[in-house]
Design goal:
With about 400 residues, the protein is an alpha+beta fold. It contains twelve helices and seven strands. A hairpin with a 3-residue loop joins strand 6 and strand 7. The longest helix has about 50 residues. The mean pLDDT is about 75. InterPro entries: Bact_2-comp_sensor_kinase, HATPase_C_sf, HATPase_dom, His_kinase_dom, Sig_transdc_His_kin_internal.
Length: about 400
């Protein structure tokens, strides 16, 4: 719950408390004058009129300040906390069993925070009322029921009602905030997907189209095959579930194959791809765009910078209760300094593709990602996760 909503909520609770306390004293004044300890005029003046006017004025002032845009949020929070303290002092001074009354408020807050269900709150409320009635019966049977005790029980019943209403409002606020958080999370997932989709390099699209155009003049069948792979690549990139952000391993492999087919048309025998994937793992769901960027990095930064080219090996295997996915290449690799910088980077400046994959994998069900590389000996990226996911 944000600060502004919390402050307005406290102000509304204040109005409820004022109304309940005023109603209780008025009802006692009208219906039980013979049991009043103080003279009726004193009771009317100091127990009804003065407290009601004072608490209403305080609550109205707090309401105006909470609604004002000029008052800092921290000042509003202190003000609302001060209101709760004032009401607590009033109850302690006015009623001998104020501890019971204050506990009802704490109980309602506890129930709403732990259970967040109106039905359970209602049963606790009814049980509290029943225990209070049994206490009244006990006092009556033992002959200890006097006018003050009747008044205390009556006030406590009303405060139980107020506590129930407060818990109900708290639960409603909780559900509203939870719905807002869920909506915000879904929106963030959509934005993240849009960002990942936007990472398709314009140069890749430009080069792919140029390659297909060039084959149209020399090899029409090859051009048609490339166009099919290019269409499949775009479909797999943009057709992703916005809610789960997960795809099957088989689908991610299809995306890689479509991408590699286009790149091989440009670089020929400089690129070679090998797959070692256990068939039962193909249906396993993984975060979308977590393998293709690694293959793209291996080709762009590893193989294409090596005169003789090389091979990218993609493997997925089960091993001792874990699933290990590896993207290895025989490219130029990288030195220890560059590798350390890539491992410890906290932004995408050191590599957009690897940074995005690392962030997505590490936030997914305790999965781990590691990268090892030697200069001139290639690079290996390893993703390790529990086999219960498969």
């Amino acid at each position: 719950m944000d600060s502004i909503k919390w402050c307005r909520y406290i102000v509304n609770i204040g109005y409820i408390c004022v109304a309940l306390m005023a109603f209780a004293h008025v009802a006692w004044y009208l219906g039980a004058r013979d049991y009043l300890v103080n003279p009726p005029d004193i009771y009317l003046k100091y127990f009804i009129i003065a407290p009601t006017i004072g608490t209403c004025a305080l609550n109205l002032l707090a309401d105006l300040l909470v609604r004002s845009a000029r008052v800092p949020i921290q000042a509003k929070e202190y003000l609302c906390s001060f209101i709760l303290v004032i009401y607590s002092f009033y109850l302690i001074m006015a009623h001998e069993i104020a501890v019971v009354l204050l506990c009802t408020f704490m109980l309602s807050i506890f129930i709403s925070a732990i259970f967040s269900k109106v039905k359970i709150t209602r049963w606790v409320f009814l049980a509290s009322m029943l225990s209070l009635m049994l206490f009244g019966v006990k006092m009556y049977v033992t002959g200890n029921m006097d006018s003050r005790m009747v008044m205390q029980i009556f006030i406590t019943c009303l405060m139980f009602v107020g506590s129930y209403l407060m818990a109900k409002m708290l639960i409603q606020h909780y559900h509203d905030n939870f719905a807002a958080i869920t909506s915000s999370h879904e929106e963030a997932a959509k934005n993240e997907l849009a960002f990942l989709q936007a990472q398709i390099k314009p140069h890749f699209l430009y080069n792919a189209i140029n390659t297909m155009v060039s084959f149209c003049y020399t090899d029409s069948e090859r051009a048609a095959s490339l166009l099919i792979n290019f269409s499949k690549y775009l479909r797999l990139v943009f057709d992703v579930d916005h809610k789960s952000m997960l795809v099957s391993l088989e689908r991610e492999i299809e995306l890689i194959k479509a991408y590699v087919a286009i790149e091989k048309a440009r670089f020929g025998g400089q690129i070679s791809i090998e797959y070692t994937i256990e068939p039962e793992l193909l249906s396993m769901e993984i975060p979308s765009f977590c393998l293709q960027p690694l293959v793209e990095n291996a080709i762009k930064h590893g193989l294409c910078k090596k005169d003789a080219g090389g091979t990218v090996l993609i493997s997925a295997q089960k091993s001792e209760g874990t699933i290990i996915i590896k993207i290895s290449d025989t490219g130029i690799g990288m030195g220890a300094e560059q590798l350390n910088k890539l491992k410890n980077s906290e932004s995408s400046k050191e590599g957009v593709g690897f940074f995005n994959v690392s962030r997505r994998v590490k936030s997914w069900q305790d999965a781990q990602l590691d990268i090892q590389s030697t200069e001139g000996g290639g690079t290996t990226v390893t993703i390790t996760l529990s086999d219960i996911i498969a």
